[in-house]
Please model this.
Amino acid sequence: PVLLLVTGPPASGKSTLAEALGHAGAIPVLSSDAVRAEHPSLGYGDAARASIYRELARRAGSEGSFVVDATFGEPGLQDAFFRAIAAHPQRVTLTIECEAPAELRLARAEARHGGEDDHLSDAGADVARELGERFVSVPGSRTDGRLVVDATTPVEDQLDAIEAWLDQRLSAGAPKMSPTKREY
Model:
């Protein structure tokens, strides 16, 4: 089983990429936005966000592969997730970090917050700015590999880069993506 963590600052394109990866690989996507939507009173406070990351880890602890769509941008949130996931069977854990310029992220956040975009996240420009400014990448020691993708490029191009990277990372006997049909 493979656990693909799709990370990056708010509005960097994580959810779009995570959904495309899930569809391409026919594997479930677990989203911090979806978990937060199940508990609207939680908000964005530190304790509430850590609770959401523990819940993501609990759900990802099930058998099989998963794509996890979350910012993972603070050490405390990373700790909450990785401590909780440690209780579950081992699997290959890889990080895909979405990169996009701050101006584009803020414009995306403003557009979705203003109702122009049908998106689960309720993080407007203020939240995107604050969390983006304190974003810290998941350390390489926490996962089996990390790929940074340019989230300003078309999703299909991102998938092509990820496919090549996954094939290389997983070539030691783990399932690979087919060049004609993206499957894990």
